[in-house]
Design brief:
Distance between the termini: 51 Å
Strand content: 25-35%
Structural class: alpha/beta
Radius of gyration: 19 Å
Number of strands: 15
Number of helices: 13
Largest sheet: 9 strands, mixed
Order of helices and strands: HEEEEEHEHEEEHHHEHEHEHHEEEHHH
Length: 326
């Protein structure tokens, strides 16, 4: 191989730290794994006690919790039982310490979360008394600075992964690099567009030269990504899962178009995080052997459980809980 024994030992040690191999027996990590590349931040949620009135102060409550689309997907996956690695960036500050500790405690491997010179990102959401989003403000400079080199540092994990999940919040060049890296190792990619503005930025990457296993837009994001599911299939995307809110979803792929009803929630407490949990559950179910339609239904069940909770990621989320609700 043209290398020294010492260099091989260093490489093996690094693979052990990353979880690719286990212990001195150099046994490969068992079971499927997911690498999530995306945002990590602190969520600040302010909920009005009464129907919100614009232009004035509203009494209510405020909570703080780790968030970010990529980080939320990673935590949901770990809680469901999938081995998950997160590639992200947080600040070298107390908020970053809290985000890292909480994410690691949930079971996510965080060795590739970079400490950025920028402050840890924050997402501040104002919710009405019924839990619906009124307005949100995000400061994501740390995630915006996540570079291709940060993804390249995790190339061994990507090569060994069963799935890679990409958060559309990231810079275009970073997403392009991650797509190319996954394609080089023939690893399936699931892409979450996040918003209309981010979907517009993503659209040029979906030119048919980069295979994408699945993409998960809502109606408005679909409109700027290509207008309809057929156009996305023509660009090399195997599965298009269109989120329709209370109307459920449309899943389109090799087996045709499937309309799935939304799962019933016991009550709507807080809609924040529903999309992240459904995406994570979809990936977990696929890796558990479910077909794509069953995986999407499983995703709906996870979303229903999430919106019935005050937390963006339910701490009691398990595979058994979701399957009971599906």
């Amino acid at each position: 191989m043209g290398t020294t024994r010492a260099a091989v030992n260093v490489h093996l040690s690094n693979l052990g730290k990353k979880g690719v191999i286990l212990g001195r027996g150099y046994v490969l990590g068992e079971g499927p794994s997911v690498v999530v590349v995306g945002g990590a931040n602190m969520d600040v949620k302010a909920r009005s006690a009464l129907p919100a009135t614009a232009g004035t102060s509203n009494p209510g409550t405020t909570t703080f919790a780790p968030g970010g689309v990529g980080r939320n997907v990673a935590e949901n996956l770990a809680r469901l039982g999938t081995r998950t690695h997160l590639v992200a960036a947080v600040g070298a500050d107390p908020l970053g310490d809290q985000v890292l500790a909480a994410t690691s405690d949930a079971g996510v491997r965080v060795e590739h979360v970079r400490r950025s010179p920028h402050a840890t990102g924050t997402y501040t959401a104002v919710l009405d008394a019924d839990g619906e989003l009124v307005v949100a403000v995000s400061d994501m400079r740390a995630s915006d600075a996540l570079a291709p080199a940060d993804v390249d540092a995790a190339r061994d994990l990507v090569a060994a992964a069963s799935l890679v999940v990409l958060d559309g919040n990231l810079p275009t060049e970073t997403l392009a690099f991650a797509l190319d890296l996954a394609a080089a190792s023939d690893v399936r990619v699931v892409l979450e567009p996040v918003s209309v503005a981010k979907a517009e930025r993503l659209a040029p990457l979906l030119d048919g030269t980069r295979p994408v296993f699945a993409i998960t837009p809502n109606r408005d994001e679909l409109a700027v990504l290509g207008g309809d599911v057929g156009a996305l299939h023509e660009r090399g995307i195997t599965w298009v899962w269109v989120r329709l809110g209370a109307d459920g979803s449309l899943l389109s792929g090799p087996t045709g178009r499937h309309e799935l009803p939304a799962a019933r929630a016991d009550e709507v407490v807080d809609v924040t995080g529903a999309g992240d949990s459904s995406l994570a559950a979809f990936c977990h179910a696929l890796l558990s052997g479910d077909d794509e339609v069953a995986a999407a239904a499983y995703g709906h069940a996870a979303a229903a459980l999430t919106i019935a909770s005050t937390r963006t990621v339910r701490r009691d989320l398990t595979d058994r809980l979701v399957r009971r609700h599906a």
